[in-house]
Amino acid sequence: MPPTPSGGGRMTLAGVATAPRALADTRRATMAKTIVGALAPLVAARARASDGVVIVEETVGRGVEVLAGVDVVKVNYTVALASSKARVDSAKFFVFGVGAGEVVEGFDAIVGGDGATPPMRVGGARRAVVPAALAYGDRGAGCDKTGNACSIPPGEDLEFTVELLEVK
Questions:
Q1: Co-location of 94 and 38 in the same domain
Q2: Separation of alpha carbons 55 and 161, rounded Å
Q3: What is the pTM of this model?
Q4: Which of 9, 19, 52, 73 shows the greatest Cβ crowding within 10 Å of its Cβ?
Q5: CA 161, CA 157: separation in Å to the nearest integer?
Q6: Residues 32 and 77 in one domain
Q7: Residue 4 within any structural domain of the chain
Q8: Structural domain range at position 101
Q9: How far are the Cα atoms of 14, 28, 31, 36 from residue 22, in angstroms, in the given order?
Q10: Residues 61 and 138 reside in one and the same domain
Q11: pLDDT (tens digit, 0 to 9) for every residue of the chain, 168 residues total?
């Protein structure tokens, strides 16, 4: 029997038109949830802290979490210029107090966490871009006496790779 414009219990033209639309809407909603679910780890892996440091979690550690202002840590790290990727420093088994002002502010943020990023855990590894304002700013570092030749030029953003080995 063909659909009628109205009728008790019978399917109407409006009902026929809305059934496929409702099914399509349900499929769209399911696809959106699937896509968002798939992207969530990627979004979580790359966070911009409130201070402008961009951190990519390479490996999430399973050990003790760093407590900034309290813990002394042992790390391996490398530092490169963001503009040229030229490596300017690296160290193995480097020890410092997190949040104690012993390293540039951006390095503290990578290890101790800040804003959108939690503190590192032992066994973890991160890559990060630290803006010049949280590194060596307008003064640069490793400059000669004239201030013209610097291993880290003034205003240079830095790329860090950090592996947390131990919390003391």
A1: no
A2: 10
A3: 0.70
A4: 73
A5: 14
A6: no
A7: no
A8: 49-167
A9: 12, 10, 14, 21
A10: yes
A11: 454 445 555 444 454 445 556 665 666 666 556 554 544 444 444 555 556 899 999 999 999 999 988 999 999 999 999 999 999 999 999 999 999 999 999 999 999 998 778 999 999 999 999 999 999 999 999 998 886 789 999 999 999 999 999 999
